[in-house]
């Protein structure tokens, strides 16, 4: 992973900066409502806060842990900025996957870390610019945004984003010349389990426990992939192997 002499210095600086920015962001996020409540004398009871946030925490804490485990190997140090700006699954991760594919770099390398950082930064800046423009044009565009056709179209934005993300998963090209063969076979069992839980077993509680389901599916998917890889059902073709075959053919 450390392809250059100063690679360790680069990663140390990025991790140090990411930790400090995360710490500062947490202080700002928690400090602003705390100060407002103190100034106006509307500080809620801790018990009320825990009662109101209990359901949300039950969903988002497991989901956040699952994202940390699943996304960090792909995003590298850019995960710090992604966590601060948010919208990882819907925007940041698809942007990173697309950038890695366009740049044709292998995940987990220093080049991939740099490309991911640029992709997340540009994505965050683009989002802020669009939000700023939207805030300025919200009142003039309100009649258009309230049209039934527009309201219906906005319901397809999230599925479209996940569709783009799935295209990257279906692709055999992992970037950097690495090609997967048969990797989708490992998805069959976790998909069946998740679909069965959603449709038949716990449909009314699925949203509450979906984070735990994701955490459970990650080691299951890893184990299945490992077994299939050892049995030759899943194959990985590295760039070095392709170059060797080309030299032999020549």
TrEMBL record:
Residues annotated as transmembrane: 20-42, 49-66, 78-100, 112-138, 150-170, 182-202, 208-229
UniProt superkingdom: Bacteria
Name this protein carries in UniProt: Uncharacterized protein
Keywords assigned by UniProt, alphabetized: Membrane, Transmembrane, Transmembrane helix
